[in-house]
TrEMBL record:
Coiled coil: none annotated. This is Glycosyltransferase family 2 protein. InterPro entries: Glyco_trans_2-like, Glycosyltransferase_2, Nucleotide-diphossugar_trans. The keyword Transmembrane applies. GO terms for cellular component: plasma membrane. Pfam families: Glycos_transf_2. It comes from Candidatus Undinarchaeum marinum. SUPFAM superfamilies: Nucleotide-diphospho-sugar transferases. The keyword Cytoplasm does not apply. Keywords: Cell membrane, Glycosyltransferase, Lipopolysaccharide biosynthesis, Membrane, Transferase, Transmembrane, Transmembrane helix.
Length: 297
């Protein structure tokens, strides 16, 4: 199998039939063996029924169904795990991605492990574009991956790059950054983008804080996942250092200025800072022990 196309779908009954027809036309012209994997993420409309008819008509189409809505990240990961192609394409089911861009993304894999779509002329609301710019900025700052469009689902991967990929939360938007950290070469190409003609967008402001928290988690895991004592220890020593400075101030007040310190709030704060610092260091050592134990297993 040369190409697997993974398409998460959730309540896209007005789009999946046209998407399939456009996609089948492009893949047929490419003259490469292929499979189309629709991963329905618990749709409550007629999406499943339409996809079942398509899969019955075309044996290259496979429908994988989630019993409940688990999110786009889980749907993508499900598709990646069952894909058999040497090349894996991911794209949205809302017809905003254009299947005609797939051939050039596949060609791009001759010089990279991942080719990301860049929606240069993006047909989305002002709010979504601004949120995307913020996300792009944060990923560049955290991981040094300079892409214009970190969140475009239309991407081409060498299957070897995503073989052991682990995704959590809203982590699908950070796949390029994750793979870049692992040493895979990531590039981007301009792709077309269309306005949504049917259905409702699944993105809203509520996803912004979730995405930011996932980004922080990913940064922590990639930077300190194998050496947690470094971050816990640094925080612990910083807290104990503050406690030490507070203690010096109390000693100065008591023995130089002759002031009483027994009832001062600063004394309680000093004790708390020292204890909290020790707790951070202990947690770091415990995390190191857990990681070493898991590695031996």
């Amino acid at each position: 199998m040369e190409i697997s196309v993974v398409i998460p779908s959730y309540n896209e009954e007005g789009n999946v039939e046209r998407l399939y027809m456009e996609l089948a036309t492009v893949l047929t012209r490419m003259k490469k063996s292929h499979e189309i994997l629709f991963v329905d993420d618990g749709s409550s409309d007629g999406t499943v029924g339409k996809l079942e008819k398509i899969a019955k008509h075309d044996k290259s189409v496979k429908l994988i169904k989630h019993g409940s809505n688990k999110g786009q990240t889980a749907a993508l990961l499900t598709g990646f795990k069952v894909s058999r192609g040497r090349i894996v394409i991911s794209m949205d089911a809302d017809l905003q991605n254009d299947p005609s861009d797939i051939p050039k993304l596949v060609e791009g894999l001759e010089k990279a492990d991942v080719v990301c779509g860049w929606r240069a002329d993006r047909k989305d609301s002002f709010g979504k574009r601004m949120a995307s710019k913020l996300n792009n900025f944060l990923v560049r700052r955290f991981f040094g991956l300079s892409l214009h469009d970190q969140g475009c689902t239309l991407r081409a991967y060498k299957s070897s790059a995503i073989k052991d990929l682990e995704l959590h939360g809203e982590g699908h938007r950070y796949i390029p950054a994750m793979l870049s950290v692992k040493g895979h070469k990531v590039i981007e190409m301009k792709v077309k983008h269309h306005e949504r003609k049917s259905g409702k967008t699944k993105y809203g402001l509520s996803r912004l804080p979730k995405g930011f928290l996932d980004l922080i988690t990913l940064k922590f895991l990639t930077s300190y996942g194998s050496r947690p004592i470094h971050i816990f220890g640094a925080a612990g020593f910083a807290l104990m250092g503050l406690g030490f400075l507070g203690g010096v101030k109390l000693l100065y007040d008591k023995y130089v200025l002759g002031h009483g310190i027994g009832s001062r709030p600063l004394l309680i704060l000093v004790v708390l800072l020292v204890l909290l610092g020790m707790q951070f260091i202990f947690n770091g050592l415990l995390a190191e022990l857990i990681i070493r134990t898991r590695e031996r297993k």
